[in-house]
User: What shape does this take?
Amino acid sequence: QVHMVESGGGLVQAGGSLSLSCAVSGLAFDSYVMGWFRQAPGKVREFVAAISGSGGREISAESVKGRFTASRDNAKNTVYLQMNSLKPEDTAVYYCAAGFRPYGSMCPKIGGQYDYWGQGTQVTVSS
Assistant: This one.
């Protein structure tokens, strides 16, 4: 059984930083691309960042590029999202997701291409 548990969310002032973690168990972690998505109230879920199974490729959405970075530690089965220079518009529930990609470095931006999801962690940025 796959378990994915996000942590690290909270309340932060604009301009501040947060680091999210997602601990994963029950799958061959390095065979999965790991993605981060977010959903704000009344809005659709949107892609934030993703990192390939080996960690060799990392991509991020234009809205967070240069501020957010995904990373992973395959020895710990954990993926991270470092968020800097946070803005009020970054307020959302953040979800990690795992997609089976045993070969290559594809990092999907579409949620439907991921197989497993965490329960989400709230990030609130005050102005």
Notes: The longest strand covers residues 92-100. The two ends are 40 Å apart (CA to CA). The mean pLDDT is 97. DSSP finds no helices and eleven strands in the chain.
